[in-house]
From TrEMBL:
Domain Serine aminopeptidase S33 intervals: 17-221
Entry protein name: Carboxylesterase
Residues with site note (Important for substrate specificity): I143
Active site per UniProt: S95 (nucleophile), D196 (charge relay system), H223 (charge relay system)
Length: 245
């Protein structure tokens, strides 16, 4: 089976730009539906790829990436859109990307509004993310036809031995961002699936209490709102948010 390598994308379609940040085990592909929708409505859209992602080696995420590397990539993405002379820049992030989208709204004066989908902020326990990443790793290895079951299991064990250190670093970054939520004065979109198994859906309500400018949208759906059954409603809600901010 030929595996198509996911790639970042940039749709140049208007003077206002939307920056989309993907999740921990995801890629820019998870943002493509939303990106194309916004492009059709006259917005430029940029979805970079976090370091270590989009390869056929799950360990790359744990070894080539880090919260600091991903944050610097977020800042570079904002600089890229400024260099494209976009007069308005919005930012949204899914799961891991939500941490950096929120940090940008706290710290970057270049971003005028944005929000999060399936945000892990206020989640004390990242076991859901761990439990989702290991099957993801096994699936990636299983697609590689030259690996035996024993070799696949060996590789998954290596991933399991290394992921906790990364999740600890992500949690530290998340806590730092959470502590500064009250600093956000710009419009803040919160999209949360009520049947999310990776993060606690109730955490979104805690974030909404902290961010006085927030708009909370709940969906009868799971974690990856950009591609699951809620994606069309999410697209409509995000567009309405952009049009009014």
């Amino acid at each position: 089976m030929k595996i198509l390598t996911p790639k970042p994308f940039y749709f140049d379609s208007g003077s206002s730009a939307v920056l989309l940040l993907h999740s921990f085990s995801g890629t820019a592909n998870d943002m493509r539906l939303l990106g194309r929708f916004l492009e059709r409505h006259g917005y430029s859209v940029y979805a970079p790829m976090f370091a270590g992602h989009g390869t056929n080696e799950p360990l790359d995420i744990l070894q080539a990436g880090s919260p600091e590397i991903w944050w610097q990539q977020c800042l570079k993405a904002i600089e890229f859109l400024k260099a494209q002379q976009k007069d308005k820049i919005y930012i949204f992030g899914l799961s891991l990307g939500a941490i950096f989208a929120t940090k940008a709204l706290e710290e970057s004066s270049d971003v005028i509004a944005g929000g999060v989908f399936g945000s892990p902020l206020y989640n004390q326990n990242f076991s859901g993310i761990r439990n989702a990443f290991l099957p993801y790793a096994k699936k990636v290895y299983s697609i590689q036809q030259d690996l035996t079951e024993v070799e696949i299991d060996q590789r998954v064990r290596v991933v399991s031995s290394k992921i906790d250190l990364m999740l600890t670093e992500i949690r530290k970054t998340s806590l730092g961002v959470t502590e500064n939520l009250a600093e956000i004065k710009r419009p803040y979109f919160i999209g949360q699936g009520t049947s999310d198994k990776l993060v606690n859906p109730k955490s979104a309500q805690e974030v909404a209490l902290d961010v006085k400018t927030s708009q909370l949208h709940l969906y009868n759906a799971g974690h990856v709102l950009t591609i699951n059954g809620a994606h069309e409603q999410l697209q409509s809600d995000v567009l309405n948010f952009l049009e009014n901010n």
